[in-house]
Amino acid sequence: FPLLTKHRRNLSTSSSSDKVETSKGKIQAIHKKITRPHRIILVRHGQSLGNVDDSTYVNTPDWRVTLTNLGKEQASEAGQKLQRLIGDDERAFFYYSPYERTRQTKDRILEHFSPSNVISAREEPRISEQQFGNFQNVEEVWEAKGVRHKFGRFYYRFPSGESGLDVYSRVSSFISTLVRDCTQYRNAGYDLDKVNVVIVTHGLSLRLFLMRWFQFSVEEFEVSENPGNAQLVVMTKKCVGGHRWYELDNDDRSSLNLPKSCGIPKNVHLH
To answer: Is the per-residue pLDDT at 247 higher than 60?
Structure first.
């Protein structure tokens, strides 16, 4: 009986060890499947005519507002910075808002990239600007923005337009597509450790993307600030053990007035 008991114990120990090894194998397989790109880089469009003259929106649809000459220069400088950051040994795929100012910004950026370093460039309506209405009356928009300041940017809805929550919802939907696209590129044979995602968008949409990704609170969003025109906001992948997550560049986090604790997701397993 003692021998039988010992044998049973050995079987139990062996079984537990096998389970641990199996679990480790499963975890490693899962982490292989959830590979993410080296960086996610968000870019606000360059200075637009609407940024310098509110009356632009009276006769020009918001989505057709173009860059100023300064905005074109800013976009070109952003392209140079982006190319230096990514380098010649890595590749990128781009998403951009359909608005004319973001399209122009994207075009200026791509002038600094070799076609062989660009996997794709895709128009994505869900990262468009917040909708303020159609042709805009300047006085009415300023009045509405004054009310929004008191009410809160996240929940205030513009008459005939969107609330920040509406933009948050569509940006959240876009993130699911981004993750799925990453999986497809990985399955196609791309080494995502050498791939960067570049998102050319608008100030509010950019901040709401960060809010969703890093799980910011509404209160933290309310005190955040827009990046400058054509500013790069860089999220870099970190890998420690079996964990993968993204951290926001410290300077970017500071310029957007986000607390230090918001640079890392509250649950590193999520991304």
So the answer is: yes
